[in-house]
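Now for a chain:

_____
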Amino acid sequence: METINIERMTYGIDSLGHLNGKVVFVPYGAPNDRAEIEIKETKNDFLRGSLTRVVEASPLRRESPCPNFPECGGCHWLHLLPETQLREKEDYLRFILKPLSPGAIYPIEALPMTHYRNKMELKVKVNEDGNVVLGNYKYRSHDVVPLNGCIVQCHENLTILKALNEFFKQPNGAGIAKNIDEIMVRTLKTQQHALIYQKSPPDDITLNAFRDFFNQQESLSRLELVDKESSFLTLVREKPPFAFMKKNWTVSPHSFFQNNLDGAEAIYYTLISIYDNIHSKGRFIDLYCGVGIQTMVLENRFEEVLGVESNEDSFQDALKNLKTRNTSRIRFICRRAETIFGTPMTKGVIAGLHLNPPRTGISQRVGRGLMGIKPRLITYLSCNPMTFKRDALMIMQMGYRLEQVHAFDLFPGTFHLEILGTFIR
């Protein structure tokens, strides 16, 4: 056992200290803790340890408000005071972005700390005694920790979780659960979807059981039993459409959408304010456009708008959303972002381009494509500051400067951070 002083948080679950001249990473530490640790891994230039005892607790530490923390693994920083979480995120964001010399990094926009998450992904485990456990994987483990009492899931998701727990207590519940990989529930106000991922085609007992479950759960607008390639059962109930930012939207279960509605609204209104300040003559391209919400809220600022999305479900949702508009200058296409460069779609004046890639960031092919079109303004929304930094360096080498960075705390209690960078040519 060793005793160290915890200095700060890192971009990740770990806190950071030093031992014998080496950096040591320790999960669940708090800045200014004096902590007893056990060294678990030794590398040439750093160590990894586990926290065995807090010798002297930091004033920045608190008792977790969630009964599942830290075992659940879904949240990482619930042992820190809310204001400490924000400060540490701002500190590591400034540290990561310092080499980019951004013109401005705005303070993180704080959002509600509890019951903000509209999407719930449940791992399923059947214990030896036949009890079914629904929850998250424990940190660095495949043990499933139940989510009962979760403070970040929205109330509607927790209601369905309670109903699912009761469902699997029925006599054939364990048998049904053994054929389930995962359960996804997403609640977007009036629309609540549940996807039950099957390991193999379900039997009649399973199909009938979920029909009964759907009939009993009036909040559900859609329930599907699926695997990676097939749908075995689809049940739909008429519900009012999902209303967001004063319009109605279609977001199907397999489409991407932000897991925090307040955060999504904050991001979209920030995008609007950014594009309000530029000359709009020319085309706007929205790469990785999803169901097209940000495309549509920005379309009136440009002569022509192109939305590009490779996911078929999201693309179909975008088309449905487009049909609800009386007139539009938008064209959506379903193809990979890499394939649009060198085509008529990227000819002419590109006034603006928005990027919202997955956590892995943009590919080198997309980067090379951007070099050939030189939009006046690029906005880049990222859920991973590390890949954002990598891609920002590439964009800046094309003759752009990072004008400003907005950050949004979409996932309080975790180390995750959503950032929006604005690049000016």
Q: What stands out?
A: Residues 2-61 form a domain with the OB fold (Dihydrolipoamide Acetyltransferase, E2P) fold (CATH 2.40.50.140). The first strand starts at residue 2 and ends at 5.
